[in-house]
UniProtKB/TrEMBL annotation:
Species per Swiss-Prot/TrEMBL record: Marinimicrococcus flavescens
Residues of the Alanine dehydrogenase/pyridine nucleotide transhydrogenase N-terminal domain: 4-137
SMART domains, alphabetized: AlaDh_PNT_C, AlaDh_PNT_N
Name of the protein: proton-translocating NAD(P)(+) transhydrogenase
Catalytic reaction list: NAD(+) + NADPH + H(+)(in) = NADH + NADP(+) + H(+)(out)
Family membership: Belongs to the AlaDH/PNT family.
Listed transmembrane segments: none
One GO biological process term: NADPH regeneration
NCBIfam families in alphabetical order: PRK09424.1
Length: 372
């Protein structure tokens, strides 16, 4: 059986869905690997690194001509025509934002797995692409925000006087937010953070951050994610955030609700109350934005405050993020393959079922049943 790894075609996507390490592991499972020439260039992985690990090289058509195709992002329009009946497609297919494409996988007869849909259970940890990528994104967001800040992060006591430490505020303390907090702490900033899930308070404090805000009743869903706030809760949060923002130097926002537009938390009025020279980085800019007026991939000044809209942060660390992503994928693909190296999809496995969007011409994931 053959695994194909095409070069990612979407703009700003530098990651690749396999690494030399995972090629060796696929070989160990009895699978042949075909990598598109240049697929790893953006992740600092030369073609030779893949061939040395046992893969063969091909053009795009050759890489797509495989029983299992591994992708980072969902296929582009031009790639949809390459899909074929019975093929398995695995990646971060972003199904909530591309519902029509989910229907197209079904009509093409493709078995599509979107790893963002995996349940966040202990067994799924080794395949948890959301965590591996968000962890790096949270780090990069804080590094970018610090780089854009024109004062210094740690306290410095010098003969010429004392420089006070920067005050950093992180909104949303999931995987990305916690890594942002840890990164700012390492640099010596004074860090505060907020979230709406009860577990977040302790996690923030365990990293040396101070919790600010309030935890609404029942704000965490059974899946461990946050639910949207009611208008009253939003107003309460807005009051607390508005008060706290005034004194902050760097604000990094990471709040997300799966399958929905990101909650708007920082308004233009709040930004206007901040000190000149402050930096606001919106990690949720691509999913609607936590910060009013932020644009993915764009930066602007508003009353002396720099507002940065993040865009595909994991791709900006492609050598690191690809290696982790590739390993997540390999752990998942291992569930789909028999000892003899043949395709063996176990419909009773909760992880296989949890990530499966389409199978045998039908949409099978309950969250997309209305598309069927
Ligand atoms: P996410 O990307 O969906 O959201 C980021 C953060 O934003 C979350 O912490 C969320 O609570 C927060 N948020 C949403 N609305 C908010 C608002 N209005 N104000 C402030 N904060 C808001 O989350 P994630 O990083 O993917 O983590 C989701 C959950 O999954 C967490 O509970 C995390 O601990 C859990 N998790 C579990 C495992 C596991 O193996 N069991 C692994 C990773 C993550």
């Amino acid at each position: 059986m053959r695994i194909g790894i095409p070069k990612e075609s979407r703009e700003h996507e530098l990651r690749v869905a396999a690494s030399p390490d995972t090629i060796k592991r696929y070989k160990g499972l009895g699978l042949d690997c075909v990598v598109e020439e240049g697929a790893g260039t953006g992740a600092a992985l030369a073609d030779e690194a893949f061939t040395k690990a046992g893969a063969s090289l091909a053009d795009a058509a050759g890489a797509w001509d495989a029983e299992i195709v591994l992708k980072v992002q969902r296929p582009g329009e031009d790639e949809m025509g390459r899909l074929r009946q019975g093929q398995v497609l695995v990646g971060m297919l972003d199904p909530y934002m591309s519902r029509e494409q989910v229907a197209a996988y079904a009509s093409a007869g493709v078995t599509a797995f979107s790893l963002e849909l995996l349940p966040r259970t202990t067994r799924a940890q080794a395949m948890d692409v959301l965590s591996s990528q968000a962890n790096l994104a949270g780090y990069k967001a804080m590094v970018d925000a610090m780089a854009a800040y024109s004062r210094v992060l740690p306290m410095m006591m010098t003969a010429a006087g004392t420089v006070t430490p920067a005050k950093v505020f992180v909104i949303g303390a999931g995987v990305a937010g916690l890594q942002a907090i840890a990164t700012a702490k390492r640099m010596g900033a004074v860090v505060t953070a907020t979230d709406v899930r009860p577990a977040a308070r302790e996690e923030i404090e365990s990293l040396g951050g101070k919790f600010v805000g309030f935890i609404p009743e029942g704000a965490a869903t059974a899946g461990g994610y946050a639910r949207p706030l009611t208008p009253e809760e939003q107003a309460e949060q807005a009051r607390l955030v508005a008060e706290h923002l005034k004194g902050q130097d760097i604000v990094v926002t990471t709040a997300q609700i799966p399958g929905r537009k990101a909650p708007r938390i920082v308004t233009a009025q709040m930004v206007a109350s901040m000190k000149a020279g402050s930096v606001v980085l919106d990690m949720a800019a691509e999913s609607g934005g936590n910060v009013e007026g932020s644009e993915p991939g764009a930066e602007r000044m508003e009353g002396g405050v720099r507002i940065i809209g993040a865009r595909n942060l994991p791709a900006r660390l492609a050598p690191a993020s690809s290696v982790l992503y590739a390993r997540n994928l390999q752990n998942f693909v291992a569930l789909l393959v028999s000892k003899e190296g043949a395709l063996a999809i176990d419909m009773d496995d909760d992880l296989v079922k949890g990530a499966m969007l389409t199978h045998e011409g039908r949409i099978v994931h309950p969250n997309f049943a209305d598309q069927a």
